[in-house]
Structures are given as C-alpha cells and as structure tokens.
Design goal:
mainly alpha
Amino acid sequence: MGSAERRSREMELRRKDIIEAAEHVFFEKGYERSTMDDVAKQAEFSKRTLYAYFNSKEQIYFEIMIRGYRRLIGLLQDKLQGNNSLTAMETLWEITSVYYEFSCGEPHYFQAIIEYENSLSDFQNGIPDDSRNECYALGEEALLFVKNALQRGVEDGSIRSDLRVDQATMTLWASMLGIFSTVRTKKHYLERYYKIGPGEFIQESFRLLLRSLEPAQ
C-alpha cells in the first residue's frame, strides 16, 4: 500500500469515526442541543480536526441521514425486489410494513429523518452540494418505491385513474411520517385512552389512506 493510499484510508476512517461520534451525541442529546464541541469530545478529536472533514454540524447531520436512507432502501429492496406477484395495493402494504420495521428497528435514524422533514429550515447553510444532493437523491430513491406502485396501480386499474401520482406519492410519504411519528410519541396515550396498540393503529390508518386510492364503484 502506497503512502497516498494509506493516507486516504486513514482519512476515511477518521471521517467515519466523526460521524459515529456525532450519531452518539445527536441521538442522545438531540440535534438542536448538540454542539460541535460535544462531537469533538466524543470523537476524541480537536474541533479543528472536525472542521477539516466537515463544514458544519448540519453537514454531519446530512451524513447521518444518508446512512439512515441507505438502511431504509436496503430494507425496501430486500422486501420487494424479485417479488413480482404482488399487486399494487399489496406492494403499498409491504412498503408500510417496511417503514414500521425501520421505525422500530432503527428508531434513531428514523427520528433523524423525521426531524429533518419537520424542520422549519431546510438546512441550506453549511451543506456542500455533494452531501445535499446525495441525501436528496436517496430520499427520492426511497419515494420511488411508492411512486412505482401507484403508477402500476393506475395502469392496471386497481387505483383511481385520475390520481396525480407525483402528488399522491408525497401525500402518502407525509402521511406515513405523521402516522409513525404519532405511534412513537403517543403510544401510551393511544393504548390508554383509545385502547388501540401501535400495530392496529398503523394498520387502520393505512387502510383508510389506501381506500382513498381505490376506483369509484
């Protein structure tokens, strides 16, 4: 291994260490309450070293979301690729189950995505174009599973022919985030006052959403 290759590998390992330290800090304290000083302390690097690899706390947050999106996409691929026997509606149900699995199995990554989606700002400052573009591209890739299922349903007649697929995709995405966020934050309230568990609440919520996609009888 040459010196240039060794240095490149060392830099990549250090970059990975910083992201993992930031995950620990952000997931424990929350993004808004965390500082670059906290990350530097957790990573056992100087603050100057952090800024040699990342422009800002926001850029590190994007890198964490990139990790989360990659895991979500991996779950969707495992569940759906090669399973061509599913109808459009069955595919949408499977996507719902993957999102629930992701929210339960990777709650911190799920929360990172939720917090970004619900943020009043769009994290425009301090984000290099390549980090932002990769994160946006992965988000669109995750949405594509929903969009393709909707388009297939419109074409085969199992979903309303007047559906605006792009808008419906974003509506379902926003609804999924809201439903899963409610389950995470209001679980005990739902169980105590409405006598409904998380799984049943999600199932009934999505049954209501998907009914709105069916053709008029």
